[in-house]
Amino acid sequence: MIFLGYLYGIRSERQLEREIQTNLAYRWFLGLSLTDRVPDHTTISWNRRKRFADTTIFQDIFDEIVLQAIQHRMVGGRVLISDSTHVKANANKHKYTKEYVLQNTKEYIEELNAAVDAERKARGKKN
Description:
It is a single chain. The chain is mostly helical. It has one domain (2-86, 93-122). Helices cover 52% and strands 0% of the residues. The protein has helices at 2-7, 13-22, 24-30, 41-51, 57-71, 106-122. The longest helix has 17 residues, at 106-122.
């Protein structure tokens, strides 16, 4: 579930729960039928914050999925993300350089933790 949140930029576990409830593709990916209950956002949060806190499980799963995607030629490394700065285009498709960018899921997990902490603080609960 957290992989889906990371992949699709869902920055809230509550929102992730709602998305999984209504998105058939997410349900299929997770192996859930239309009648299966989606785990509550508190379960997702508890697993992430407590159960797997001192492990590298999320990074390991993410790395394995990316490796499998590369092996099945689903990932080609052709995406370039840039800010809105004006850049002169080089439209020659035969001249390019491959660059590999290493990204870490740690930032995503930290953003989820910050969102949970902010919500708990707003509701007057302890962290």
